[in-house]
């Protein structure tokens, strides 16, 4: 009972905070509620321009507010075209540490304000880090994974969305005759996503027991073209029933090149049933 009361109180506090955030970050595209889930909570995106006045830095923050928020802090993702992956991870860690030190009350606005300090610290060493990563270690990759089946859809999808946020890997789960996961981001993070799929119990077997994803196949991993950069921003779930619908989904994701590469590997889509 205490847990349910706590969740209901957290939901009320989160909803009130959403209203406040929408009024504070009211410029076009600045605030967006991306997802509302009874199981996983709220996914909120806030875009800010921070840093020195003469060269403001565009930063996008994703906050995953779990059902028990604000009794427990949110998960956070940081991305910016002006920062390296290492810099974004470092800022994320500082924000998570700050969130853990705050009292259990609505904190998103405080964390957004804290971002300014984190970016100022990063700018002091930015030139040095850019020299270190200049050799291409931060190259962006695209990957397509093939899943055999999904029995426990809510659990499976929830884990994929959580890993995507934690690893800062925008992506999509495409549910249809073949079940595909599309990811884009740094190659080490793609590798970690695949490792989690193989080692964490993400689904249930035919007997209803939790099981790992042992049938996943990596269809392709490749350096990402610049056209993909403007597509995925979060982790989407889309359903399709035919090849034209699958093609349209990849076009919407700005990943037509990846679709053309994996199409010969998919075989006859009509030979496969829909995911459970």
From TrEMBL:
Q: Keywords in alphabetical order, please.
A: Cytoplasm, Nucleus
Q: Which residues form a coiled coil?
A: none
Keyword Transmembrane included in the entry's annotation: no
Summarizing the function annotation, the protein's role is: Enhancer of SUMO conjugation. Increases SUMO conjugation to proteins by promoting the: binding of E1 and E2 enzymes, thioester linkage between SUMO and ube2i/ubc9 and transfer of SUMO to specific target proteins which include hif1a, pias, nfkbia, nr3c1 and top1. Has no effect on ubiquitination.
Cellular component per GO, a single term: nucleus
Full protein name: RWD domain-containing protein 3
- Which InterPro entries does this UniProt record tie to the protein? RWD_dom, RWDD3, UBQ-conjugating_enzyme/RWD
In this chain the RWD domain maps to 16-122
What high-level taxonomic lineage is stated for the organism?
Eukaryota, Metazoa, Chordata, Craniata, Vertebrata
Entry keyword annotation includes S-adenosyl-L-methionine: no
Q: What is its main location?
A: cytoplasm
Organism of derivation: Scophthalmus maximus (Turbot)
Q: Where in the cell is it found?
A: Cytoplasm; Nucleus
Q: Name one GO biological process term.
A: cellular response to stress
Tree of life domain: Eukaryota
């Amino acid at each position: 009972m205490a847990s349910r009361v706590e969740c209901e109180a957290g939901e009320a506090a989160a909803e009130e905070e959403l209203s406040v955030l929408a009024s504070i970050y009211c410029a076009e595209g600045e605030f967006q509620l991306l997802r509302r889930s009874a199981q996983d909570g709220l996914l909120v995106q806030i875009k800010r321009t921070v840093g020195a006045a003469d060269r403001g830095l565009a930063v996008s923050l994703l906050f995953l507010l779990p059902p028990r928020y604000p009794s427990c802090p949110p998960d956070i993702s940081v991305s910016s075209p002006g920062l390296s992956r290492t810099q974004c991870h470092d800022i994320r860690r500082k924000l998570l540490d700050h969130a853990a030190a705050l009292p259990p009350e609505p904190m998103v606005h405080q964390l957004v304000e804290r971002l300014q300090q984190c970016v100022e610290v990063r700018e002091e060493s930015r030139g040095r880090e850019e020299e270190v990563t200049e050799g291409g270690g931060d190259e962006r990759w695209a990957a397509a994974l093939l899943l055999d089946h999904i029995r426990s859809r809510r659990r499976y999808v929830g884990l994929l969305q959580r890993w995507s946020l934690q690893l800062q890997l925008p992506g999509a789960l495409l549910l249809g005759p073949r079940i595909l996961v599309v990811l884009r981001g740094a190659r080490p993070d793609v590798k970690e996503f695949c490792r989690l799929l193989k080692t964490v119990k993400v689904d249930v077997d035919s007997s209803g027991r939790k099981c790992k994803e042992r049938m996943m196949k990596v269809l392709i991993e490749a350096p990402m073209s610049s056209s993909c950069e403007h597509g995925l921003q979060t982790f989407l779930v889309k359903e399709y029933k035919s090849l034209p619908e699958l093609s349209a989904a990849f076009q919407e994701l700005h990943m037509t090149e990846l679709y053309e590469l994996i199409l010969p590997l998919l075989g006859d889509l009509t030979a496969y049933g829909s995911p459970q």
